[in-house]
Design goal:
This is SAM-dependent methyltransferase. This protein is α/β, with parallel strands linked by helices. It has 7 helices and 11 strands. An 8-stranded mixed beta sheet has the order 6-7-5-4-8-9-11-10, with helices on both faces. Strands 1-2-3 form a 3-stranded antiparallel beta sheet, covered by helices on one side.
Length: about 230
Amino acid sequence: MKREIMITGDGSKTIHMPDLNEQYHSKHGALQEALHVFIETGLQHFVEVSLSRKRDFKKEPLHILEYGFGTGLNAMLTAQHNADISIEYTAVEAYPIAPEEVEVIDYGNLLEDQELFAQLHDTSWDKKTQISDSFEIEKIQTTFEKLDYDQKFDLIYFDAFGPRTQPELWTQPIFDAAFKSLKNGGVLTTYCAAGQVRRNMQSAGFTVERLPGPPGKREMLRASKAF
């Protein structure tokens, strides 16, 4: 399948697949979307709520699961976010992008940390790697359907290709597994706000909020698992 590098609305790059009319990030701004959906509405929100409950992230690391490692943008922004928070990051990806795509996308230059971007992509699959004192990553090459965790994660970044292209990734069984993998009080964020996706999340047990989306999208979803 043909793949092209696209410059998005905020100047950051993504991968575009013209045959599917689909891309890894929003054409309106890859960086803006990642920051809004996953960092601000996901990570920052969860940390603020947890700190209000007196959680000590040095003693109790934040466990994040990413559905769709893709270009590594979400992982990189998370690793850069706050050195005072210890993060253990698990990223799932069935089809890793090619080394030449990593080089051209060049988020290391965009986010002014070439070493970190290279580390995230060069680390071995299916092996935990300590990137810094506060950030550990394990990239797992598998499909979403094979995930089976039990109350392990605090936060899920759900960043699969959209339901128009891959509806099988947005079904209730997928969200059943995501719900099971979250600790009580855990949160899932995604750029998608489709009605059927929201209903599938609710059927899996989530409480779902419709929130303002990133540039180019009216809404996004944040789902939570009750304490």
